[in-house]
Amino acid sequence: MDLWRQLESVAKNRWVGAYWQSKGRLVIPTISWSDSRSFEFCFDGVPQNGTVAVGMIGCKRSRVGFMRGYNEMLERLQPEKIIVFGTPFPEMKGNIVAVDYMSSRKVVR
Description:
By secondary structure, this protein is α/β, with parallel strands linked by helices.
């Protein structure tokens, strides 16, 4: 995805979260990144020392890149809790709450 599209996606994500929060909803921000260029904006608008969510779907192809972003997130946001959708890598640090993605979905077949 082009960098400007990534920036647009993060902005929309944060706007929706702020809107829901203004309506009294509990919002847990989902953090995502691509490469180090996205670090300039992908953590913006997320409070430090809170709870965040991270998805593991698709990151297995670039474990090193994922861990770079993950460690940058830890440094910048210092999250109290990290909800991880999928199986966390053993080297992931922090207060991780792993959620099995498939069993957490309401699948209608």
